[in-house]
Amino acid sequence: MEVKIVLIAALGGSVVALLYALSRAKWIFKQKVENEQLKRIGGFVSEGAMAFLSREYKVLIPFVILVAAFLAIGNKGPIKLQAAAFVLGAVCSGLSGYIGMKVATAANSRTTQAASDRGLNAALKVAFSGGSVMGMSVVGLALLGLFIVLATTTRLFGEDVVALADVILPILTGFSLGASLIALFSRVGGGIFTKAADVGADLVGKVEAGIPEDDPRNPATIADNVGDNVGDVAGMGADLFESFVGSIAGAMILGLTVQADDELKVKMMLLPLILVTVGVVASLIGTFFVRTKPGSDPQKALNAGTFGAAGIAAVFVFIVLKFFIGEQVFNGGSGMYHIFGACIIGLVSGVVIGMITEFFTGTGTRPVTSIMKSCETGAATTLITGLGVGMMSAFPVIVIIGAAIWSSFALAGLYGIGIAAVGMLITLGIQLAVDAYGPIADNAGGLAEMSEFPPEVRDITDSLDAVGNTTAAIGKGFAIGSAALTAIILFTSFKEQSGVGIVDLMSIPVLVGILLGAVIPYLFSSMAMSAVGRAAYKMIEEVRRQFREHPGILTDDETPDYKRCVDISTQAALKEMLLPGIISVVTPVIVGFAGGPEMLIGLLTGVTASGVVLAIFMSNAGGAWDNAKKMIEAGGSGGKGSDAHKAAVVGDTVGDPFKDTAGPSINILIKLMSMVSLVIAPMLKSFWG
Amino acid sequence: MEVKIVLIAALGGSVVALLYALSRAKWIFKQKVENEQLKRIGGFVSEGAMAFLSREYKVLIPFVILVAAFLAIGNKGPIKLQAAAFVLGAVCSGLSGYIGMKVATAANSRTTQAASDRGLNAALKVAFSGGSVMGMSVVGLALLGLFIVLATTTRLFGEDVVALADVILPILTGFSLGASLIALFSRVGGGIFTKAADVGADLVGKVEAGIPEDDPRNPATIADNVGDNVGDVAGMGADLFESFVGSIAGAMILGLTVQADDELKVKMMLLPLILVTVGVVASLIGTFFVRTKPGSDPQKALNAGTFGAAGIAAVFVFIVLKFFIGEQVFNGGSGMYHIFGACIIGLVSGVVIGMITEFFTGTGTRPVTSIMKSCETGAATTLITGLGVGMMSAFPVIVIIGAAIWSSFALAGLYGIGIAAVGMLITLGIQLAVDAYGPIADNAGGLAEMSEFPPEVRDITDSLDAVGNTTAAIGKGFAIGSAALTAIILFTSFKEQSGVGIVDLMSIPVLVGILLGAVIPYLFSSMAMSAVGRAAYKMIEEVRRQFREHPGILTDDETPDYKRCVDISTQAALKEMLLPGIISVVTPVIVGFAGGPEMLIGLLTGVTASGVVLAIFMSNAGGAWDNAKKMIEAGGSGGKGSDAHKAAVVGDTVGDPFKDTAGPSINILIKLMSMVSLVIAPMLKSFWG
Fold this sequence. Notes:
The structure is a homodimer.
Chain A: H1 2-30, H2 36-74, H3 82-118, H4 120-157, H5 161-209, H6 221-255, H7 262-287, H8 298-324, H9 336-361, H10 366-375, H11 379-424, H12 428-450, H13 455-498, H14 508-549, H15 562-576, H16 578-595, H17 597-633, H18 643-688
C-alpha cells in the first residue's frame, strides 16, 4: 500500500518537473533570433553539437546491446529483467543529455539576442530558463525511470521484503548501471571533444596568430563552442543524472538492511525516493525565486533560488519524516531525528566542500594569487605552484568527506551514509539549473563575439558568466562529495548483495585488489589526457594548415573551414572514449570472477580512495590555473599579452583536460565500477557459492 | 647458539664492507687534484655541501631528542630501550649520508682530473670507487647497527621466542625508525635544496641570460652542484639505508609469526639477516668485476658488476638455505625452495620494474619520443603528454608489484613477502655503488665546465654519466618495488604487534582511515612542491639581482656571489623540510590514539596504495621529461635553442621536483608512517586494552 502511494508521489513529482521543463523550453523556442549572423553561427554550433550527440549515441548502441545481452544471459530467473532496466537507464540518461543540449544550444543565441535588445535581466532570464529545462528534465526523467522500474517489478513480484531484496532492487541496479555507463562515455567523449578544440583554438589562435578568443577567423572556434555544449552541458547532464539515480538506488538498498521489522525496512527503502521527490518540488519552487529587477544583483537572484530551495527542502524533509517515520526506531535507537541529521549533514558538507573549492580556485583568493605571482617567473613555476595548490586542496575536502561519513554513520549506520548522499543531491533540480546556466552564458558570449555584436553585449554575457562561477563551484562540491559517498554506499551494498562475510583488510587478495584499484584512476586519466593531447595535436596542425594555405582567412577575405575542425574533434572523441569506458566496465568483472568478491571489494576501495583524491586534485588545479589566467587578463601581474600571461595560458591549457576531461570522468568511474560490481553481485554469489 | 653465530657473521660482513669502503676512500683521497681552478671550485662545492649537512644535522638533533624522549617515557619496562636504538639508527643513517658525501665530493674533482689526465677508464675507476664507498658504507653501517642492537638485547633479555617477540624486535623497530626519520628529512631537505638551485640556475641562466649549464658566470651554479651532492648522494644514501634496515626488520618480525616450532621460528627470524650478509659479500665480489680495458664499453663493466653480484648472491642464498633450513618446513608445507623462490621473485621483479621504468623514461623509447614530438607544439602539450606518460607508467609497475606480493605470499605466506622485499635489496651494496656513481660523474662534468677544461674532458664525463643512466633506472625500480613491499610487511607486522584481530575493511573507521591515508601523500607532495616553488622564486630573484647590479659578471670581469645562492637554498631547505616531516610522524600517532589501531591500519593502507602510485607517476613523469629534453639537445625536433627545446626545458623544470623531491620522499613517507605505527604498537596495545 505504502509502496503504491510513494510511487504515485514519485510519478507526480516527475510529471510536474517535466511539464515545467516543457513549458520553459517552449518559451525559449518562442524567443526570436533576429540577427542574421547570430542565427547562422548559432546554427553551426547547434548543428555540430546535435550531430556529435547522435553519432555518439550510434556508437554506443552496440555497446548497450552487448551489456544488455550479458545481463540477460548471465542472470537467472526474474533478475534477467536487469537487462531491460539497464536499457531504460541508458535511454533516460541519453535523453537527459539530448534535451539539455537541444535547449542549451537554442538558449545560447537567444541569450545573446536578449542581451543585445533588452539587457542584463532579460538575458539572465533566458539563460537561466535554459539551465532550468536541463535541471528539471534530469530529475524528472530520473523519477520517471525509477517509477517505471519499481511499478513494473512490484506488480510482477510483489512488495514483500524478500521480493524487494532478491529481485526488485537487483533489477533497479540495472537501471542505475545504464545511467552510469552512458554518463561515463558522455563525460569522456564530451571532455575529449571540448578540450581538443579548446586547446587547438587557443594555442594557434591566441598564442601564434594573436587573434582574440572566439574570433570568427579562427577555424577551430565553432568546434570550441560546440565542445562547450557537448562537454559542459550534455556531459554534465548525463553525469548528474547518474549521480542522482546512483545515490537513490544505493540508499534504497541500504534501507532494506537496517535492523527493524519488515514494515519499517520497506519504509526505509522507500524513504530516499520520497526525499528526492519533495526535493524536486522544492527545487521547482526555488526557480521562482530567481527574479531580478533592473539594477539588482543577479548573483543574489541565483543564491536566493539555490538556498531558498535548500531551506524549503529541509522543511519538507522534516514534515515527511514526521508523518512517515514518526516515533518508529531502527538499528536499536535511530529515529527520524537521526535521519534528518544525516540528511542535513549531506546538504551542509556539500556546501562546505563547495566553499573549500571556491577558496582554492576562485579569483583573488590566496592560492590563486600565488599562482598568478608564479606566472611572473614563467611557465615552469606556474605549473609547479598550480600542481601544489591542487594537491593541497584535496586535504580539507577529504577531511570533510571523512567527517560526513563518520557522523552520518554514527547517527544511523550505513543507512545514514546513504541518506547523507541523497541529502547532498536533494535539490539537484535547481543546482543543475545554475550549473547549466554557466555554459549557456559563456556560449552566448562566444556567439556575440563571433557574430560581431558590439562589445557591450559581450560585457553583459561576461557578467552573467562570472555570476555563475561561485554557484558552480558549490555545485562542483556537491558532485565531488556525492561521488565519494555514493561510491561508498554502492560498495557496501555490493558486500551485502554478494553474500561475503567480513572482508579482512589484511588478506593478500584484498590488499592486492586495493593496490590495483589505486592505479586504475591513473590509467584512466592517462588515457583521457593522452587522447586530448593527440586530438589537440591534430587540431593544431589543421588550424595551422588553414592559416597557411588560405592566408585570406586572417584578412577576413576567406571563410575558414569550420566543419573540418568539428570533424576532427568528433572523430577523436568517438574513437578515444571507447577504451577507457570498456576498461571501467570490464575490470570489475574480471577481478570479481577471477579473484573473488573480497578482492573485488579491495579493488573498489582502492579505486574510490585514490580516485576521489586524484579527481579533486585535477579539478581544482585546473580551476585554479583558469582563474589565475583570468586575474592576469583583468590586469594582474602585467596583464594581457605580458610574459606572465603567456605562462598563465600554458597553465590554463594543461588545466583544461585536468578539470574538464579527466577530473569529472573519475567521479563517474568510481561509481560505475561499484555499480558494475553491484549488478554482477548475484552472478558472483552463485559463481563463488 | 644459532643467534650468536648469525650475529657474528653479520658483524663479519659489516667489518669487511667497512674495511673495503675505507681502503677505497683512502685510495680516492690519495689521487691528486692538480688543476688550480678545479681545486678551488671543487673546494666551494665540497665546503657548501658539508656545511649544509652539518647545519641540517644540527636542526635535526632536538627533533631526535624529542622523539627519543617520547619513546623512553611512553614505553614500559625494557622496551624503553627503543629510545637508545632509535638514536643509534638516526646516527648510523646520518653517518652513511656524511661518509657518502664526503667521499663523493672528493671523488668529483678527482674524476675530472683523471678524465683530463688519463681518459675514460681512469675516470670510471675514480667515479665508481666513490660510489662503492657509499654503497659499502651504507650496508656495512646497517649490519653494524643491527648487530649492536641485537647483540646487546639478546645478552640482556635472552634468545627465546617470547623475549624476541615482546622485547627485542620492538626495540629493533626503534633502530629502523631512527633510520627512516633521518632519511625522510634528508630526502626532503636535500630535494628542496637541489631543485631550488637547479630551477633557479636553469631559468635565469639558460633561458634568460642564454649562458650554458654549469657556466661559472651563473651565481647559482655552485649551489646547483652542491645540491646534486646533497640531494642525490646524501639523500639517496640515507634513503637506501632506511629501505635496507626497514625491510630486514620487517621480515625478521614476520619470521617469528610463521607456523612452526620455536626453534624454527627463531631461524626464520634470523634468516633475513643471513641473507643480507651473504648479499653484502656478493656485492663486494661484484665490485671487482667492474674493470675496463682501454676501448671496452663501460656499460658492460657496470652490468657485469650488478648482474654478477646478483648471480653470486642467488648461489649463496641457495647454499645458506640448504644448510640453515634444509628439510625443515613451516606454515604447513613451505620449505627452503619456497623461500628461495620468494627471494628470486624479489630480485626478478625489481629488475622488471627497472625495465618498465627504463621503457617509460629512457631516451629514444616510444613514450619519451611522444613527449619530444609534443614539445613541437609548445609547453602545454609537453606537459599534458608527460603527465599522461607518467600516469600510464604506474599501471604495469603496480601489476608487477601485485604479482610479486601475490606469488611470494602463495609460496611462503606473509613471511614470503618479507623475503621478497629483502631479496630485492640483497645486492644493495653494488646497486647503490652504481647509483651513486651517476651523480659523481655528473658533478665531475659540472666541475670540468666550471673550471674551464677543454670540451673533451666534458665529453668523457658525459659518456660516463650516460652509462650510469640505465643501471640507475634499474636501481630506481628496486627502490620503488621495495618501498611497496616493505610498507606492506611493516603494516602487517603492526597488525601482529598491536594485537588487533581481523580488520574489517567495511567498518567505517577503517574506510575513513583509508580515505584520509590516500590524501596524505598529496598533502606531503604539495608541501614539497610549494617549498621548491618558493625557494626557486627567491633564487631566481637573487640571480637576476646579481646580473642586474653587477653587469661585470656576464662579461667575466666580476666573480658572482656564489655563497649567497648556497645560503638561499640552505635556509629554504632547512626551514621547509620540517613541517612535512613532522606531519608524517605525528599523523599515525594521532590516528592511532584517537581513532584506534584498526583505523590506523586503514590509514597505512591508504597511504601505501595512494603513495606508491603517486610516487611512480611523479618519478617517471619527471624522468621522461628529462630525457625528452636530452633527446632534443641531441638534435631531435629542432635541437638546442629551438622552440621545442624551450618547451622541453619547461617540462624538465616541472619534472625536477617531481622526480627528485616529492617522488622519492613519498617512498620514505609510506615506510616511515608504518614504522612509526610499529614502534608505538606496544603503547597502543596497552592504551586500547
